[in-house]
Amino acid sequence: MATLEPRKTKSGKTYRIRLSDGEHPDRPRIGLGKCTKRQAQTAKRNVEHLIRAKTSGDPMDQSVADWLANTPDSLRNRLEALSLAKPRVRVEVPSVEALADEFIAARADVKESTRTGYRQVKTDLVEFFDADKPIDTITPADAKQFKIHLGTKRGLAVGTVNRRCRRAKQFFAFAVDSRYLSESPFAKVKAGQSVNSDNFAFIDQETTERLIEAAPDAQWRVIIALARYGGLRIPSELLPLRWSHVLWDQKKIHITSPKTEHQNKPGRIIPLFPELETILAEAYELAEAGDTYIITRYRDTTQNLRTTLKRIIRNAGVTPWPRLFQNLRSSRITELDERTSAKAMDLWFGNTAAVRRAHYLQTTAEDYRRAVQPASKDTPDKWGQKRGLNRGQSQSAANRSDKRSEGRQATKPLETPTQCDTNKKDASHCGRRRMARVGLEPTRPGGQGILSPQRLPIPPPGQTVHDTHLPAFVNHRVSNGRIRRVSVEIRMLRSCHNLFVADGCYVPTMAWEYAYENISTE
Fold it and tell me: What are 360-366's contacts with CB under 8 Å, separation 24+?
């Protein structure tokens, strides 16, 4: 059995594997160089597996084969010299330009716009590394310098730098898969989201109507409306749109989506929104007989619609915003997200909630206005519910709660104005007197207690109100100058015995709120 020999050198601690007599008669050593103890133990187990596989003729495990394929040349040469590994097949390492061309040619599954982005990254790599530089000479430090170069020397935005670094990582991941490299020099290059929040702009409906009025013809009114009210991707989802896709009777529009067809989502169906229906109906009346497509003027996908839209924006007296068409779509998504379920949004706009949060949803001036308004229980939130209820709590629960409140209020007897005035005088007279101790005090000195209604003395029926010293916390209904007995379960007690009249009832004056429950009358 092989042994592991640690060694201390000037550069640090290194390890060697010493084979046993049974494994090799000369007991040679295999240097591992500078590594951790765990890495050295893994190498020792794999070397022992290679010796057993050589002796028995059994195939090696896949994990050992993967380890052997990624060993450094110095260790691999030593294993080959001991006949523990076959000579490594030398693959000609391509240059930077050759790798980029091979990768782009292999990605026949992507759209032409994506291939254009790949070619931009190829130009950046060739400019920074030189076209003939072998890719195995590029270090992780070089890869980090490439990212810094894009941001400082080229002056690209943070989102653009991240996007191009992600594509460069794809290039070199392809090199690893093709066995040109054992690891990618771009593996540790951080490439975050390519979203620049400074490019967001919310276009409200008032501004949209101004743009539609300033549009030169019906087709441009349709383009603006489809982008803002329909949330279409322009121009990829605009040009395939046909009149047959508009289902007038069902109030729906079928949208063909080239961007998501590789995700098995060739299209989606959106509502025929009222703002959109009027403009489409007008364009349909003006369309010539035999027109198949809704937009007939701009059939070339390479035509630049942004220039004309920017001219329309200026004619409307509006300052152009960044990402003209993207922000029209973003504004519609932000607008509908306030009142539409996530499932419907997924179906209508062809993306997920995570994508919408990262790339589309904006914070509007209306959000700030609502935030500074005082909260009220009667003010509905964005789901149409009263505040104070959980979002998942049904409205029927609130209705039941309201009915209970109405029921409690309904138990109060109706007051008679003339009688109430008399009772107020009696109550005022009684309230100035100190009530005798009748067992209503707190159960703990200075504290609060819970009393049972059986401890409350009830005056005999038939006596007038002003002839009876009513004890505190007992409610008596006045009926024709007589007392009809009412027992009330009282929860909390505080030392207070003054009485007042409310809704024809004598009730105690309390320093805090109390609750009446299980009311019964006799």
Answer: 360/329, 360/330, 360/333, 360/334, 361/330, 361/333, 361/334, 361/337, 362/200, 362/201, 362/202, 362/330, 362/331, 362/334, 364/202, 364/334, 365/202
Domain with CATH 1.10.150.130 in the chain: 96-194
| Residues 316, 211 contacting (CB under 8 angstroms) | yes
Looking at residue 395, its pLDDT comes to 52
Average confidence (pLDDT) over 135-163: 92
Angle, nearest 10°, between helix axes 112-129 and 96-106? 170
CA distance 154 to 133: 21
Contacts of 512 (CB under 8 A, 6+ apart): 492, 494
**CA distances to 23, 189, 469 from 43, in Å:** 16, 28, 97
User: Which uninterrupted H or E stretch holds 314?
Assistant: helix 305-315
CA distance 194 to 358: 9
Question: Residue 191 and residue 493: Cα distance in Å, rounded?
Answer: 66
pLDDT tens-digit map of 471-500 = 433 443 433 443 333 333 333 333 333 333
Instruction: State how far the Cα of 212 lies from the Cα of 315, in Å rounded to an integer.
Output: 11
Tell me: the pLDDT tens digits for 286-312?
Answer: 999 889 999 998 888 778 899 999 999
Give me the count of residues in the chain.
Answer: 522
More confident residue, 395 or 134: 134
Exposed, middle or buried: residue 68 (CB in 10 Å: 0-12, 13-18, 19+)? buried
Higher-confidence position of 243 and 393: 243
Answer for the pair 267, 274: CB distance below 8 angstroms, yes or no.
Answer: no
Q: Quickly state the pLDDT bin for 360 (edges 50, 70, 90).
A: very high
Residue pair 172/186 in contact (Cβ under 8 Å)? The answer is: yes
Q: Which amino acid is at 414?
A: L
Q: Whose structure tokens read 């749109």? A: 241
The whole-angstrom separation of Cα 176 and Cα 103 is 12
| Distance from C-alpha of 183 to C-alpha of 177, rounded to nearest angstrom | 9
Structure tokens at 109: 């599954």
Mean pLDDT of the chain: 77
The β-bridge partners of 34 are: 14
What CATH code would you report for 96-194? 1.10.150.130
Q: Are strands 476-479 and 267-271 parallel, antiparallel or unpaired?
A: unpaired
Count of CB atoms situated within 10 Å of the CB of 54: 15
Highest average pLDDT, of 49-58, 370-379, 398-407, 416-425, comes from 49-58
Using one digit for the tens of pLDDT, what is the confidence trace for 47-57?
A: 999 988 888 88
Q: Tens digits of per-residue pLDDT, 178-199?
A: 989 888 999 999 988 777 788 8
Is residue 241 within 8 Å of 293, Cβ to Cβ? yes
CATH 1.10.443.10 holds for 200-366: yes
CA-closest candidate to residue 444, choices 513, 495, 509, 497:
495
